[in-house]
């Protein structure tokens, strides 16, 4: 039975919640970072269209994800309060919203930005909804598939500004791709019971915490040198390089104790997860400051 919504404002909040606004805001920031770094000749309206189109595509993907996983979400403590599993909205609301946002976003990117960015947006939306979402209950490899749409927004920002897929844009993609692996593996360790109840096939569930901790450390070790691709390509300077070295060193140091732990350590996994947020925020802030110091601001 549907729960009663107490007011139109509550209804609006639930509809917005279907788009997972916190994740969508991260997409907005990383897309803007790609536009900023590219220093292309993108007009103000095209910049707004690129940000809007990318955000709408991701929001649509999230709404469709909520629709597809509405039954699974009932079994997880962190998701059972969402509008669909809690019964506050009918499932068709998420379906219609997701389709509407997807239908608007890709043509917007194609017409107001450029075809390359639109194709990348369609790839992000399609891979998230059609491949990653159903794959989560079948294989731990879903992690790597899901990291692709999560890493595309900064590359989309780059292509929006330049009209081309270039080395620096690919480095931004690689940084976001690699960052997501230790980030989500850490979540998978300390949320293992939740994921198991929902039938998710995460790495800690299928192969154990020890293997997951090794993967966290190895992917973090891979991330740090990749982050230096930006200064090597001349997109960033000394300030970013120093920040990347410090943040990367601390990130690696946070992950290495997990290799020695004999028993599952949820506290360590939470620490890695929290610092991964600090790392990504710090890295993008360093890029902005570095660009300002080098006189490349818009």
Task: Estimate the mean pLDDT confidence.
Answer: 90
Shape: globular
Number of strands: 0
Give helix and strand order, one letter per element, not per position: HHHHHHHHHHHHHH
The percent range for strand residues is under 5%
Uncertain stretches of 5 or more adjacent residues = none
- Percent of residues in helices comes to over 70%
Count of helical segments?
Answer: 14
Q: Which class of secondary structure composition applies to the elements?
A: mainly alpha
Distance between the termini: 53 Å
> How would you characterize the largest beta sheet?
none
**Which radius of gyration do the C-alpha atoms yield?**
20 Å
General description of the model:
The protein has helices at about 10-15, 20-40, 45-70, 90-110, 115-135, 140-160, 165-190, 190-195, 205, 210-225, 230, 240-255, 255-260, 265-295. By secondary structure, it is an all-alpha fold. It is globular, with a radius of gyration of 20 Å. The mean pLDDT is about 90.
Q: What order do the helices and strands come in, and which of them pair?
A:
Blueprint: H1 8-17, H2 21-38, H3 44-68, H4 91-112, H5 115-135, H6 142-162, H7 167-190, H8 192-197, H9 203-207, H10 209-227, H11 229-232, H12 238-255, H13 257-260, H14 266-293
Helix pairs in contact: 2-3, 2-6, 2-14, 3-4, 3-5, 3-6, 4-5, 5-6, 6-7, 7-10, 7-14, 10-12, 12-14
């Amino acid at each position: 039975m549907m729960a009663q919504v107490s007011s139109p404002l509550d209804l609006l909040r639930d509809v917005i919640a279907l788009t997972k606004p916190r994740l969508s805001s991260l997409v907005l920031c990383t897309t803007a970072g790609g536009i900023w770094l590219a220093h292309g000749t993108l007009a103000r309206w095209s910049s707004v269209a690129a940000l809007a189109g990318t955000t709408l595509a991701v929001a649509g993907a999230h709404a469709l994800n909520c629709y597809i996983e509405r039954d699974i979400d009932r079994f997880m403590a962190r998701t059972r309060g969402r509008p669909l599993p809690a019964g506050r909205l009918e499932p068709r609301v998420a379906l219609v919203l997701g389709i509407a946002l997807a239908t608007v976003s890709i043509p917007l990117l194609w017409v107001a930005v450029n075809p390359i960015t639109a194709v990348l947006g369609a790839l992000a939306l399609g891979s998230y909804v059609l491949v990653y979402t159903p794959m989560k209950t079948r294989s731990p490899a879903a992690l790597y598939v899901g990291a692709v749409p999560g890493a595309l927004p900064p590359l989309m920002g780059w292509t929006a500004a330049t009209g081309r897929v270039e080395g620096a844009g690919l480095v931004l993609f690689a940084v976001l791709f690699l960052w997501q692996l230790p980030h989500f593996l850490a979540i998978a360790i300390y949320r293992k019971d939740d994921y198991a109840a929902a039938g998710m096939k995460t790495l800690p569930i299928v192969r154990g915490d020890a293997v997951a901790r090794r993967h966290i450390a190895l992917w973090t070790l891979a991330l740090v040198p990749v982050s230096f691709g930006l200064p090597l390509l001349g997109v960033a300077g000394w300030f970013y390089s120093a920040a990347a070295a410090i943040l990367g060193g601390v990130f690696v140091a946070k992950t290495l104790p997990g290799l020695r732990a004999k028993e599952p350590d949820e506290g360590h996994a939470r620490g890695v997860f929290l610092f991964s947020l600090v790392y990504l925020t710090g890295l993008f802030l360093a890029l902005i400051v570095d660009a300002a110091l080098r006189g490349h601001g818009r």
